[in-house]
From TrEMBL:
Domain of life the protein comes from: Bacteria
Annotated organism of origin: Arthrospiribacter ruber
Transmembrane segments: 9-26, 51-73, 94-121, 133-154
Keywords per UniProt: Membrane, Transmembrane, Transmembrane helix
Protein name as annotated: DNA topoisomerase IV
Keyword hit for Transmembrane helix: yes
Length: 164
């Protein structure tokens, strides 16, 4: 039941990424910088189309690769998954919620990364220091979700040991 909240968050994060990425793509110059010097001149960069296609490919690959295990658990695709996460098991719900919300966290992190590239390329409109709080959120989210994963797995293994 809870995994539906994870799926909703995942879906909303996809919409958020698409909107943010399209806005950023429309506002970056033809040469997108990802490193500048003290005077604001481009040290390292790539073309606008490379930025767009690389961003979309990375986004799609991460979403597909990370959603496959969740779909396998949902569809009970293997005998081991049926035994480990049977339908109705609370840990199946926790694991699906974790996977979908983790994909959402990845998508939000990609949005923050795209905002950083946007701030580098539009120094006259917005400075990269105005996003510094968001940059610290990314590792906090990852650490929190990894700790939650270990908690879920630890609890699941405890129930498996009691049942065996």
């Amino acid at each position: 039941m809870y995994y539906r909240f994870g799926k909703t968050f995942h879906f909303l994060s996809i919409l958020f990424f698409v909107v943010v990425f399209m806005y950023i793509y429309s506002s970056v110059p033809e040469t997108v910088a990802y490193q500048i010097d003290e005077e604001g001149l481009i040290v390292k960069g790539f073309s606008r189309s490379t930025f767009f296609y690389a961003g979309i490919v990375i986004f799609a690959l991460l979403n597909i690769i990370l959603a496959v295990p969740a779909k396998m658990i949902e569809k009970q695709s293997t005998a081991n998954l049926k035994r480990l996460f049977p339908i109705g098991d609370e840990f199946r719900d926790y694991m699906l919620t974790w996977i979908y919300s983790f994909i959402g966290i990845i998508n939000v992190s990609l949005c923050i990364l795209a905002l950083f590239v946007h701030s580098i390329n539009n120094q006259n409109e917005i400075s990269s220091s105005s996003y510094s709080g968001f940059f610290y959120l990314v590792p906090v989210f990852f650490v929190t979700w990894i700790v939650a994963l270990f908690w879920i797995l630890f609890q699941k293994f405890k129930t498996l040991q009691r049942g065996a």
